[in-house]
Each structure stands twice: as C-alpha cells, then as structure tokens.
Amino acid sequence: MPICDLHSHSLASDGTLTPRELVARAAAAGVQVLALTDHDETAGHAEAELAAAEFGIRFVPGVEISVTWEGITLHVVGLNVDAHPLLEQGLARLRAFRDWRAEEIGRRLAKHGVRDAYAGACALARGRIVSRTHFAQYLASQGFGRDARGVFQHFLRRNKPGHVPGNWAALDEAVGWVRAAGGIAVLAHPARYDLSATKLRRLLAEFMACGGEAMEVVSGSHSREDNEAMAAHARRTGLLASAGSDFHGPENPWVELGRLPELPAGCVPVWESGAWTRKPARDTVADPAPACV
Ligand code: AMP
Ligand code: MN
Ligand code: MN
Ligand code: MN
C-alpha cells in the first residue's frame, strides 16, 4: 500500500513552505502520494507538480474549500481536481469574501486596541489568501497571546472580538465544483466540528446526497479515538476513507507529513477505489513532456 498523505498546505494559503519545499519534505519523509490542498486556492499546483516529478513522488492536485453549513464552517477537500471554470470561479468568489473578511477582522480588532492587524496579516500572507492563521501569527508576534493557538482562543473564535461569521460556499456548491472539476469530494477532519452524533449523521447523509464520496477517517487533527469513531461512520455510510496530515509547516512538529496511522480495518481507502482511477492518474514520476522549442 503506498504511503499517502492527502491533505497539506503551502504558502499559497496558510502553510509556511513553498510548494516545492513541501514536496521535497514529503519525499524525504517517504510519502509516495501527496495531495496539496490549499484553502480556496489552487495556485500551488503547477510548482508542486513539477517538484513531484523532480523528487519522484506522485502528485494529487487538491483544494480545501470553506463551506458554511447550518451556521458553522466546514471544510470539503477536493482530490484529483482539474482546472475547471466552475471550480475556479467558485474559489475566486470565496477569495473575494476572504479579502473583505480580512479587512473586517482588522476593523473589529482595531476597536479592541489591536492596531495594524490587517496590514500585519497581509504582510505575513505575502499577497496570497489571507487566513485567520496570518492574523494569529501577527497578533502572537505583537505579544497578544503566547502562540497562534492562544490568539485563536482569545481573539478569533466565535464570540471573540475578531470573529466574523463565515459566508462561504454552500455544501452542495462545494461538492458540485469538485465534481465538475472531475475530482472526489472528501469531508475534511469530520471529528473537529464538535457535532453531536445525530448532527454528524445528518451532515454525512446530506454530503452524500450532494455527491460527496469520501471522508477523512485519519487526520493529523484527529485523536486516535476520533479516527476509530470516524472509521465506524465510513463503514456505516459506505463513504470512502481518506487520510491526511493537514501539515501546515515545520513549526508544528506534532503534525508531520506522512506520519499517519493506518486506516482502521473495514474502511475502503479512497486511493484504492474506482473513483480514484476513473481518470488516468497523473504519473508525475514519468519523464516530463519535452519542452517545445
Ligand atoms: P480561515 O480559513 O482563514 O478561517 O482559517 C482557518 C485556519 O486557521 C485553519 O485551516 C487552521 O489552519 C487555523 N486554525 C483554526 N483554528 C485554530 C486554532 N485553534 N489554533 C491554531 N490554528 C487554528
Ligand atoms: Mn489552515
Ligand atoms: Mn481544515
Ligand atoms: Mn487543512
């Protein structure tokens, strides 16, 4: 079974490595199949695909789409997505909301005595999408919390001064964009949403009704118990099982590329499914196409 890591971030969203650095690190860690799944952004694919050919691993073009469902924010990962206009237009809309939200977060924080947060976050984002991660990093650097996690706790979560409600894609929109792009829609880290068992069942049923095909059973942001609980949902629903570290950078030593436990028994790995092979895999290990001269 190949070593797969199907959820990771680069500088194109809120990760801290370039796509090439990310692929190099994955290869060094023994990962054989890597998906780059930046938040609402696919700008890292071209560089990652070239690097994957260079380092001899297989590259899966992916994305992590922000979704608003029943008032909460969820993430839907798309795997094996092509550059389809529906997906690109949808992501562009979410990035426009992100841009407005970033300014609004800055205004709200300013009212609470945090100056220049918008400029600080934009500087850290270096012109790509602006994420709450960048606000957390900036505020931590200004002494507003011990670390990014502390800043989330006190400033950025719901009911905190810098919180702005999400207005992301609807669940059926996100799944539709992924499918239009020929990809597989995967519900990301489902144990992280703190849903009751009843609500999680409803979410999974709705996700499948929209065309969702897989769920992350093993995630870097799940505990071992979460993985087991999500495996039971995958077996019950028939959703395919995915696995990903959700790696954002080496600063987080507890989430490393490719260091994932095996999928619990009885789950069908998404990378062994018919859905995975319904279009030819991008064999990035093969020689790249000759340059046109
Ligand atoms: P955004 O999509 O801009 O709202 O930012 C969400 C991102 O913030 C997630 O993808 C995580 O990378 C990060 N994040 C969310 N909650 C926390 C937390 N409690 N501590 C640290 N990072 C977090
Ligand atoms: Mn993130
Ligand atoms: Mn996520
Ligand atoms: Mn992620």
Question: What does this protein structure show overall?
Answer:
The protein is α/β, with parallel strands linked by helices and about 290 residues long. Helices cover about 40% and strands about 15% of the residues. It has nine helices and seven strands. The chain has helices at about 20-30, 45-55, 85-110, 115-125, 130-140, 150-155, 170-180, 195-210, 225-235; strands at about 5, 35, 60-70, 70-80, 185, 215-220, 240-245. Strands 1-2-3-4-5-6-7 form a seven-stranded mixed β-sheet. Helix 3 (about 85-110) packs antiparallel against helix 4 and helix 5 packs across helix 6 (about 150-155). The N and C termini lie far apart (about 40 Å). The structure holds adenosine monophosphate and manganese (II) ion (MN) (3 copies). One manganese (II) ion (MN) binds near residues 64, 75, 188 and 189.
Question: What does this entry show, briefly?
Answer:
The protein is of the alpha/beta class. It has helices spanning 19-28, 45-55, 85-111, 117-125, 132-141, 148-156, 171-180, 197-210, 224-237; strands at 4-5, 33-36, 58-69, 72-79, 184-187, 214-219, 240-244. Helices cover 39% and strands 14% of the residues.
Defining traits:
alpha/beta; binds manganese (II) ion
Task: Lay out the secondary structure.
Elements: E1 4-5, H1 19-28, E2 33-36, H2 45-55, E3 58-69, E4 72-79, H3 85-111, H4 117-125, H5 132-141, H6 148-156, H7 171-180, E5 184-187, H8 197-210, E6 214-219, H9 224-237, E7 240-244
Parallel strand pairs: 1-2, 2-3, 5-6, 6-7
Antiparallel strand pairs: 3-4, 4-5
The structure holds adenosine monophosphate and manganese (II) ion (MN) (3 copies).
One manganese (II) ion (MN) binds at residues 64, 75, 188-189.
